[in-house]
Amino acid sequence: MAPMTDRKLSARSLGLSVLSFIASISTASAKIASTGLSVNFNDVDYYISPFSSGKVDFKAKDLSKVPTVLGFKPVTVVQGGVSQKDVSKLLTTWTETDDVYQEGFAEAVFLAESKGKKPRNIIAPRHKGPAKPDSTSIITTKNTDIPSGPYFLEVSTGSLYPVYRLYEDFAGSFVESLIPTPDGKFQVMSAQTSGSASLTIGVPSRLYFTKTEKKPLAGVRIGIKDIYRLAGVKGSNGNRAWYNLYPAANYTGPAVQRLIDAGAQIVGLQKTSQFANGESATADWVDYHAPFNPRGDGYSDTSSSSAGAGASVAAYEWLDIALGSDTGGSVRGPAGVQGLFGNRPSHNLVSLDNVMPLSPTLDTPGFLVRDPEIWEAANAALYGKNYKSLAGAKGKKVKYPKKITTYQFPTNANTPVQKLLLEFADNLAKFVGGTVTASNLTNDWVSTAPAEAGGLPLNQFLNTTYATLITKEQIELVREPFYRDYAAANDGRRPFVNPVPLSRWAYGDSVGNDVLQEAYRAKATFMSWFNSKILPGVADENQCSDSLFLYTQSQGGQNPRNRYRNAPGVPFGFSAGRISVFAEVPDVVFPLGEVSSFSEISKHEEVYPVAVSIMAAKGCDGLLTKLAQDLVAAGIVKVPKAGGTLAGGKVLMRRGLEGVHDHQ
Ligand SMILES: *[C@@H]1O[C@H](CO)[C@@H](O)[C@H](O)[C@H]1NC(C)=O
Ligand SMILES: *[C@@H]1O[C@H](CO)[C@@H](O)[C@H](O)[C@H]1NC(C)=O
Ligand SMILES: *[C@@H]1O[C@H](CO)[C@@H](O)[C@H](O)[C@H]1NC(C)=O
Fold first, then answer.
1. How far apart are the CA of 439 and the centre of ligand 2, in A?
2. For residue 166, what pLDDT is reported?
3. Ligand 1 mean position to 428 CA, how many Å?
4. Scytalone dehydratase-like protein Arp1 N-terminal domain: from which residue to which, for each copy (predicted)?
5. Residues 47 and 79 in one domain
6. Which ligand is nearest to the CA of 232?
7. Torsion angles phi and psi, residue 555, rounded to 5
8. CA–CA gap between residue 347 and residue 618 (Å, rounded)
9. Which stretch of DSSP H or E encloses residue 165?
10. Do 395 and 535 belong to one domain?
11. Mean pLDDT score, 347-367
12. Would you say residue 52 has pLDDT above 90?
């Protein structure tokens, strides 16, 4: 792939090219490169990649009727030995299945020769479908390397450039919009569509990509939390001083690289609460504005730290999945309040090299996603050999555990939330042919705790464990080198840090190494107790887990972002959400539905997501993803849509004047 020549720069960059030309006379060292071009085509904003997909031969007269902008013409490539009579039908399908493709690209079609069969050259066949205008030119081409789809053809060179459609990040969920470069790095996507203080995200046509066994994520559009380093891209960890201090990463960490190798298309880096510590909108998010939760009245907190991941997948149909991370709930929280599937995986399934740590002892990379099929493929790609998939072929037949355990679940179905949770547990039990048992971990601990626990109740034994691990480890691995590097570069100064990480780190500074060692021991003690007494694995790999362990993830609360809050504290205590953190077991979120409540912001009833968390024995991640697929197939769980509600619909903050005009 070759970069565009500077002769074909956009109007916007033309001034720069002239200046550089003058400079090059005197210095002979000027460097200039296209960063792409943006165009508006039939009222849709597009970005033309600066990296060519290949060349085609044509005669100028073949394309004389096709419009030109700055030396480019919109065209279509059709591969795969499609016969001329089927082209029209195919292009109609494309307009329905790909948000980037539009009828306008069909004015000129490059039809690749199939082996042996050569379509007749340049004719304008009669056709019925709407996707192909009467003036269509069909040109045969021998080039079979260029994927099917829409392109902009550089008339002067015959080079075809891929097309991205531009979308506004109205939920404020991204920090940088990216495209891949031919050398395996990333660079900024340089176009901007209209939006109010929003970034623009570009997504490539889905038609360029074909899923294969080696590329199960081909064309899957993904956002990446801004703690994973990408080659060629500066990261922030939610901190502006960090962004400015450090250079772009020189390599992509192995976790994200696996997704790229599987064909995933990274469209941008997404907001994290600072240093992946939990923060509340709007008070705590000082360096960057918190993303917006599209559900309900549009002003509920997104939960954090994978806040951009949750907001974007809940808001945008054009985004398939997001990679977040979960140390103490940073995937599960955003998945719950935004009505998405999400997973905290078993600990240590894949290296987190070149990812900012909160606590390596507890950090895990996980996804937020609407479609469980994509979830399964993404898990298999990210966790590799450590992922025991139970989906599909290879002679494996899942055998679900018949024991369903609930923890801190409602005891009666008086409210719509309780009803949703209890109905789900019942339906699940029926589905697996088993029974539901309510558990009381506090009591179980009292009766079976190991001697190392010293007779302490669970909430005292583990009270400071999480707070100690995340602060002591992050202070050493992140804060200390950051403060040192920043001071060295800025005459001894301190960088700005948000109140939440500062208050947590202050706790870490206040306790000694003995407390840290004690925290390691407490975590290990709890893990071995829980994983043997409460949620053990089983030898049969088609079942994997002795039981399924359920707790409440999200209860349809509002948590409005326009509240003045107390000063941030330290995350002491023990709760259901800490179990998987310490026990290293997979903990996934399923959206169950929505409940209605009155919003003091919209002065209207709005609906908010209810979600359950389900844990299985350590290493049984594949069992839970398979369960999501099977419960969707059985109609027990619904695939959530992007939009204002789980059934889709406009996001409240995006509602326009259509309704007003209708009533005038
Ligand atoms: C990235 O840069 C660091 C620091 O300069 C260097 O030690 C490392 O070898 C580089 N890694 C790669 C993959 O280029
Ligand atoms: C567990 O049992 C204790 C003591 O019997 C009780 O105080 C507590 O509320 C119970 N917890 C749950 C989650 O049922
Ligand atoms: C947890 O630790 C904090 C800080 O030491 C303390 O204030 C709180 O009372 C403790 N809670 C329990 C349940 O032990």
1. 9
2. 98
3. 50
4. 65-167
5. yes
6. 1
7. -110, 25
8. 8
9. strand 159-168
10. yes
11. 98
12. yes
Same domain for 296 and 242: yes
Cα gap 88→125, rounded to integer Å = 9
Within this chain, do residues 92 and 199 fall inside the same structural domain, yes or no? no
pLDDT of residue 82: 87
Do residue 182 and residue 272 come from a single domain?
yes
Confidence check: pLDDT of 293 > 90: yes
- In 413-556 the beta strands, taken as DSSP E runs, fall at 435-439, 547-555
Number of compact structural domains in the chain: 2
User: What does the pLDDT read at residue 81?
Assistant: 81
Q: Which residue among 412, 437, 439, 443 is best mutated to probe the pocket of ligand 2, counting the most ligand atoms within 8 A of its Cβ?
A: 443
Peptide bond into 282 cis (omega under 30): yes
Q: Closest by alpha carbon to 72, among 25, 40, 43, 98?
A: 40
Tokens 């709005």, located at residue: 606
In a domain, 26, yes or no: yes
Q: How confident is the model at residue 160 (pLDDT cuts 50, 70, 90)?
A: very high
Strands (E), 36-113: 37-41, 44-48, 54-55, 72-78, 108-112
What value does the mean pLDDT take over residues 406-430? 97
Beta bridge partners of 288: none
Residues 297 and 222 in one domain: yes
Degrees to nearest 5, angle at CA 238 with 568 and 200: 130
What average pLDDT does this structure show over 390-400? Answer: 79
DSSP type of residue 21: H
- State the pLDDT at residue 11: 38
Ligand 3 pocket test, candidate residues 518, 572, 578, most atoms within 8 A of CB: 572
> Which residue in 318, 35, 3, 34 sits closest to 165, CA to CA?
318
Q: Which residue has the tokens 């390599």?
A: 251
- Which residue segment(s) compose the domain that 19 sits in? 4-166
Boundary (domain end) residue, out of 112, 138, 166? 166
Distance of CA 536 to the CA centre of its chain: 31
Residues 177 and 113 in one domain: no
CATH of the domain at 339: 3.90.1300.10
Residue 192 lies in a domain: yes
Ligand 1 near 251 CB (within 6 A)? yes
**Those residues with Cβ within 8 angstroms of residue 462's Cβ, 6 or more apart along the chain or in another chain:** 522, 523, 526, 574, 578, 582
Given 166, 197, 231, which residue is the final one in a domain? Answer: 166
Any domain includes 368: yes
pLDDT of amino acid 16:
43
The rounded distance, in Å, linking the Cα atoms of 502 and 520 is 23
H-type helices in 65-115, by residue range?
84-97
268 and 131 together in one domain: no
What pLDDT is attached to residue 28? 60
* Domain-located, residue 609: yes
Rounded CA-CA distance 47/588 in Å is: 37
Alpha carbons 395 and 391: distance in angstroms, whole number: 10
DSSP letters for 520-575: HHHHHHHHHHIIIIIS-B-S-TTT-BSEEEEEEEEE----BSS---PPP----S--
Could you report the per-residue pLDDT of 124-154, keeping only the tens digit for each?
A: 433 444 555 556 889 988 877 899 999 999 9
Starting from the CA of residue 464, give the closest ligand.
3
Q: How many other C-beta atoms can be found within 10 angstroms of the C-beta atom of residue 481?
A: 10
Output the CA 470–ligand 1 centroid distance in Å.
27
pLDDT 10s digits, 228-240: 999 999 999 999 9
What's the one-letter identity of residue 67?
Answer: P
Residue 658 has what pLDDT? 60
| Residue 27, pLDDT score | 56
353 lines ligand 1 (CB under 6 A): no
CA of 553 to the centre of ligand 3 (A): 24
- The span from the first CA to the last CA of the chain, in angstroms, equals 54
